[in-house]
Design a protein that fits this description.
The protein has 5 helices and 15 strands. By secondary structure, the chain is α/β, with parallel strands linked by helices. It has a single domain, classed as L-arginine/glycine Amidinotransferase, Chain A (5-stranded Propeller). The strands form 5 sheets. A 3-stranded mixed β-sheet has the order 2-1-15, with helices on one face. The chain has a 3-stranded mixed β-sheet with strand order 3-4-5. Strands 6-7-8 form a 3-stranded mixed β-sheet, with helices on one face. A hairpin with a 2-residue loop joins strand 12 and strand 13.
């Protein structure tokens, strides 16, 4: 059985950390509808959805991906680069501990799950404003990693803002992604710059969940033989979030 941990947005989501000029127009009621549709899509693809309650004290807490990295039998609890999110990760520990061995990033480092791209047996680790080199170093030790590639993230919030792994050796990446050369050995689907938001997609088996409104990207993915399910992500885009941000899948 594969699981997906999710948490709906709280009323406080309107105060999330976001650089989007549309943050002030966030509609929480609509965000809840979109989150429900997201969860139903996960269930339709055979995942057991573990729904956690909203956390009013943490406006960004619907973006659960950032709080931990799950790899094999280990869940590494991260440490947020943004002060306002610190403490949020503790609310995930009990549920992850039921399924995985839990380890932690120390207070000397930062690590957010949105900067870790797992592709086949390789991890791409992004050094960003949210994730530090010491955080990546600790992650590698916790996971006993022998192979991983470091990427310096520029022009994006997280590494997975501009690229995601679809399976079958295929990475979906925006043409605006400055580290395309790092994906040696993978087939890269290049998302047009004007559709860069669609580079954050969520693959579950032969189906790819894709943000609605990006026809060129949809065609490129379908051309590779995937089924595409489009979801309205407008309210999460306003919070600088994407499809992978809303769940931890293992």
């Amino acid at each position: 059985m594969r699981y997906a941990i999710v948490r709906p947005p709280a009323r406080s989501y309107v105060r999330c950390v976001s650089e989007s000029p549309e943050r002030e127009t966030i509609n929480v009621a609509l965000a809840l509808e979109q989150h429900h549709a997201y969860c139903e899509a996960l269930k339709a693809e055979g995942l057991e959805v573990i729904g956690l309650p909203p956390l009013e004290q943490y406006p960004d807490s619907c973006f659960v991906e950032d709080a931990a990295v799950v790899h094999g039998e280990v869940a590494v609890i991260g440490r947020f680069g943004v002060e306002s999110r610190r403490g949020e990760e503790e609310h995930l520990v009990p549920v992850l501990a039921q399924h995985k061995t839990v380890r932690r990033i120390t207070k000397e480092a930062t690590l957010e799950g949105g900067d870790i791209l797992q592709a086949r047996d390789l991890l791409f680790a992004g050094i960003s404003q949210r994730t530090s080199w010491p955080g990546i170093n600790e992650l590698a030790k916790h996971l006993n990693l022998n192979r991983y590639r470091l990427v310096g993230v520029t022009g994006a919030l997280h590494l997975k803002t501009l690229c995601t792994f679809l399976g079958r050796g295929i990475i979906l990446a925006s043409e605006a992604c400055p580290w395309l050369r790092e994906f040696t050995g993978f087939v890269v689907i290049r998302v047009p710059k004007e559709e860069s938001y669609a580079a954050n997609a969520l693959a579950i088996g032969d189906t790819v969940l894709l943000a609605r409104g990006f026809p060129r990207t949809r065609w490129l993915i379908e051309e590779r033989g995937f089924a595409v399910r489009e979801l309205d992500m407008s309210e999460f885009r306003k919070g600088d979030g994407g499809l992978t941000c809303l769940s931890i899948i293992f």
